[in-house]
Amino acid sequence: MAPRKGKEKKEEQVIALGPQVAEGENVFGVCHIFASFNDTFVHVTDLSGKETICRVTGGMKVKADRDESSPYAAMLAAQDVAQRCKELGITALHIKLRATGGNRTKTPGPGAQSALRALARSGMKIGRIGKFQLIYSVRSICNKRDMAVLFFLNPCLRPIDGPLVSRAGLYIEFIRICIRYLHLKIWANQIFFFFFCAFFVLTSKMKKPY
């Protein structure tokens, strides 16, 4: 009787992902942590920020809506991100932390600190840590009248690129506000506007502060 053939064990080849680096060399990525009071996003990209490597949110790790912004959900999200980064050969991360910003709160949510700690405890080396905020735009301000007042409170304010009101429009709108509250007559309005136009032409030729 012929001997039975046993099952041959096949060696599984481990496919290494990510760049080939020397021993002891770190491969950096950028971790964008957006921590609001509704959710926490942990988003890892390459150094250019154009290629997404991994993105996990606190809402993906919990079932209850009220727990999406909790430190526990942020910790679970950061652990999944760290595991995926290790699979792709990323060993170190630069941190970019931001809150909601704009005309809302500039304080990060409760999950920011927990996510950062979880990344460090998962074996990821931390590079630079920076805090970035959104700035005001015309869309975040009520109307052109408020923008004119804001411009005159800070004359060095540089208008953001886009469909914004011009510098002359801000001057005119501010003058209209002053005239409306001072209750000037029509002829005084015209004379004041004439001198204002002359003043604007002279000052527009001067060197701008930026």
Automatic annotation (TrEMBL):
GO biological-process terms attached to the record: translation
InterPro entries per the UniProt record, alphabetical: Ribosomal_uS11, Ribosomal_uS11_sf
Subunit structure, as described in the record: Component of the small ribosomal subunit. Part of the small subunit (SSU) processome, composed of more than 70 proteins and the RNA chaperone small nucleolar RNA (snoRNA) U3.
Family: Belongs to the universal ribosomal protein uS11 family.
Membrane-spanning parts: 186-204
Protein name: Small ribosomal subunit protein uS11
Any single Gene Ontology cellular-component annotation: cytosolic small ribosomal subunit
Entry keyword set: Membrane, Ribonucleoprotein, Ribosomal protein, Transmembrane, Transmembrane helix
A Pfam family annotated for this UniProt entry: Ribosomal_S11
HAMAP family according to UniProt: Ribosomal_uS11 (MF_01310)
Source lineage: Eukaryota, Metazoa, Chordata, Craniata, Vertebrata
GO molecular-function terms, A-Z: structural constituent of ribosome
Role noted for this protein: Component of the small ribosomal subunit. The ribosome is a large ribonucleoprotein complex responsible for the synthesis of proteins in the cell. Part of the small subunit (SSU) processome, first precursor of the small eukaryotic ribosomal subunit. During the assembly of the SSU processome in the nucleolus, many ribosome biogenesis factors, an RNA chaperone and ribosomal proteins associate with the nascent pre-rRNA and work in concert to generate RNA folding, modifications, rearrangements and cleavage as well as targeted degradation of pre-ribosomal RNA by the RNA exosome.
